[in-house]
Structure formats: C-alpha cells, structure tokens
C-alpha cells in the first residue's frame, strides 16, 4: 500500500505540533494534506536521510538542490507557508525537529528512519561550498568566495539579469521595465555623487561594468572599477571597448584593500559591502575614507538585516552561506552608519529602497524560469535550483521587512568641517528618472 505521504504528514504534524499548510506528494505516488494547497513533492526518500542527518534548513536545502524536493504550485506561496512553518521559528526550529534533543519524539524519529531507507546519508550536492578553514575575510578566502558566486558563467547571468547586467536592486518608478529601473538606479547613484566631467570615480565591486559605463558615458567621469572576479572583469572590459570608453574606464582584478592611487572625487560601492564581513568592516570604511579627497562623496548601497536583541546570537543563514554567498554577512543599518562615521565620514542621507529589491528579484526569477532549460545547460540543474530558491525567498524577505536595502550617502568633510553639500541636496530625487 502506497502510504508514505500520509505517514510523513502525520509525523511532520507530530514533530511540529501543528497542521501542515502544504500537501505532500511522496516518491511512491501517495499524496496527503489540505486539498487545494501547494504541494511539496518528495521525489526520493534520500531527502529524508538528508533531514535526519542535518535537521532544518541545510538538510532541506541539500534535498532541494539535489532535485529530491520540489514544489508543485506557486513557488512564493509555498515558501511563505514553509517560512511560517519552520524558518520563522528561529533557533527553536532545529530543536523542534531534532528528535535526539526531544525524548518524546524518538518514536516518531524511528518511524522516519524506517521511511528514509538505508544509511549512510548521501553526500552534499557538488554545488555546496566545501567547508573552509582559517580566519574569515583574508584576501585569498574572499577571492575564493567571490569566485564561487560570480564565476558561474557570464551567459548565465545574462539570462537572469537581462541586458543591463546589473546585479543589485533596481529603482522603480512603477511596475515597469527592468532595464529602465536599473538605468534609473545607476543614474540616481551618479546624481547623489554629483558626478561631473573629469571626476575620478572608484567603483568598488564593479561587477560587469554597468555603473562604470553609465558614469563615464552619461557624466564624463573617469572610472576605476575593481572586482575579484576574473570572469566579470573580462566581460566588463569587452563591453567598455564596444562602447568606445577604454580611455575613460579601467577595470582591475584587485582587492579594494590594495587600491592605493587616490584621491578620488567619489566612490560607489553597490552591493559589495555585504561581502566585507564584520571583522573587516572598519578596515573597509577606513580604506575608502583614505581614498577620497576632502569633500568627496561615498555612495554605499547595501543590504541590511534587522538588529538582534543579542547581537552575539546572529548567525549567517545556512543555505546562503553554503550555496550562495560564502562568508557573506549582513549588518543592521545603524551599525553600518556608525562604522562609517567612526572612520571619519559624515552620513548625509539614508534612503531605504526595500520594496524596490522585491520587485527586482521577482523579475530575475521570472527571467530564470523563462529560460530554465538554457540556464540548466549553462550551469547545472543544481545551480539553477539554488538561484531560483534564493532569489524567490529573498524577494519574500524584502516584502515582509525581514531584511532591507539602503543607499547611504556619506562625505569626507574638509578640514574646516564643511561638507560641500548643497542646502537642498535631495533635489536629485526629482530628476533621477529624467
């Protein structure tokens, strides 16, 4: 009798202490759960062994990446329901589903073990980062982490990001065109930095060169872009040559800590500071301060997490750390602003564009789904599944105010304390889409 789904539903509800909001379809064809709900498809019982070995998020992630778990129904609705079921329980979730720590649930665990099949557990998918040793955020370790995320093929990123090749939050006027919204974001950054003909701009974490090209072509800036990704640098240089801007833009494969050719009139850091890490953030702020001329501006565009009551309890999301951004860390907005000011900057403006990132991510997911077969061919089925899950889940996190994204405009004051900022600096917003 095919009854794996019924047994799994009963076990899950016993372990979690509440009804499942999704249906389960098991490898034996059985199905159980609330009618009309999205369906969590367990294609292979290896997924259960992964959960027994790594209860919680990492076990689920490994099963998803391996193709042993899937969703039949709306991806966003299902992730929303699953977040309420497991992830949003916080630190208690692992204890809830870890039977060894809960003697009352050992009987249920034995039943699950029987369903899961023979040991040992399967190895992690090849897309998972191998565990790293040594101190965080050395130059070598950061380069390896960046390579894991960005050196997966420029063709793959073209499918996901579209022609703009901008891998950060767009700036939406309405629910319009992604390319227009990304152009408007780049233009907003240039206006906040008050770029003009001949200004030297340092673009830290320059990606595929979109910010550098926009600043040089539209504002006449002379741009130095630095990235740790060899593939990004090659792609950016090709685009720059095609635009006829090689005399205005230099792209380097270089750590920001090794840039020593200041002073610059302005610095843009868009979606890069998340890789810096708390142990290096003051060094990052000090280095950028030293590279700016007095009166120069920094535009720091960065994802932020909500503050913890006990900051020592903060831990990096297991799935993101293992499959997406190795060693990446998010900081609360207040801590970021404080560190910049501790380094000598004066924070002049903070703009939250949280809702804009949710819109951006949904467009990227739609692009990936539209070109799914090509994306799988260009990378791997597992890699494509990683990107689909992380982008969709991130969109929900921004929508539900679990994380945010902010543009912080800061200046290096001149010796007499002047910021050299106009009295009504926010006039940039009126013409950001012009």
Automatic annotation (TrEMBL):
GO molecular function, one term: methyltransferase activity
UniProt xrefs under Pfam families: CMAS
EC primary class: transferase
UniProt entry tagged with the keyword Lipid metabolism: yes
Polyketide synthase-like methyltransferase domain residues: 156-396
Family: Belongs to the CFA/CMAS family.
The protein's name: Class I SAM-dependent methyltransferase
Organism: Streptomyces yanii
């Amino acid at each position: 009798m095919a009854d794996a789904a019924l047994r799994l539903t009963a076990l899950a509800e016993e372990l979690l202490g509440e009804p499942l909001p999704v249906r389960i379809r098991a490898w034996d064809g059985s199905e159980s759960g609330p009618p009309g709900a999205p369906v969590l498809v367990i294609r292979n019982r290896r997924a259960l062994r992964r959960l027994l070995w790594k209860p919680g998020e990492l076990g689920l992630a490994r099963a998803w990446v391996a193709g042993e778990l899937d969703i039949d129904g709306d991806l966003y609705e299902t992730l929303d329901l699953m977040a309420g079921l497991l992830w949003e329980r916080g630190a208690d979730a692992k204890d809830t589903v870890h039977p060894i720590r809960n003697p009352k649930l050992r009987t249920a665990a034995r039943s699950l073990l029987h369903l899961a099949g023979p040991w040992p557990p399967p190895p992690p998918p090849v897309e998972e980062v191998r565990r790293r040793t040594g101190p965080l955020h050395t130059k070598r370790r950061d380069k390896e982490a960046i390579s894991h995320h960005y050196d997966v093929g420029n063709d793959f990123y073209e499918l996901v990001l579209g022609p703009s090749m901008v891998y950060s939050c767009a700036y939406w006027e309405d629910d319009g065109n992604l390319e227009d919204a990304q152009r408007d974001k780049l233009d907003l950054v240039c206006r906040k930095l008050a770029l003009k003909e001949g200004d030297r701009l340092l673009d830290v974490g320059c990606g595929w060169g979109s910010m550098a090209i926009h600043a040089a072509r539209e504002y006449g800036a002379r741009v130095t872009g630095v990235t740790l990704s060899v593939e990004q640098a090659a792609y950016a240089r090709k685009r720059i040559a095609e635009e006829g801007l090689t005399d205005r833009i230099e792209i380097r494969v270089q750590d920001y800590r090794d840039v020593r050719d200041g002073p610059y009139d302005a610095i843009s850091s868009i979606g890069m500071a998340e890789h810096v890490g708390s142990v290096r953030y003051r060094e990052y702020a000090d280095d950028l301060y030293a590279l700016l001329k007095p009166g120069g501006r920094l535009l720091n565009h960065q994802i932020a997490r909500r503050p913890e009551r006990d900051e020592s309890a903060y831990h990096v999301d297991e799935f993101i750390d293992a499959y997406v951004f190795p060693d990446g860390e998010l900081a609360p907005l207040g801590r970021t602003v404080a560190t910049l000011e501790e380094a000598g900057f004066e924070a002049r403006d903070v703009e939250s564009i949280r809702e804009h990132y949710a819109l951006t991510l949904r467009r990227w997911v739609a692009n990936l789904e539209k070109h799914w077969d090509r994306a799988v061919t260009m990378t791997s089925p597992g890699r494509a599944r990683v990107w689909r899950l992380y982008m969709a889940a991130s969109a929900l996190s921004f929508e539900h105010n679990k994380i945010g994204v902010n543009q912080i405009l800061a200046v290096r004051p001149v010796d007499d304390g002047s910021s050299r900022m106009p009295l009504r600096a926010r006039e940039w917003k009126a013409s950001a889409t012009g």
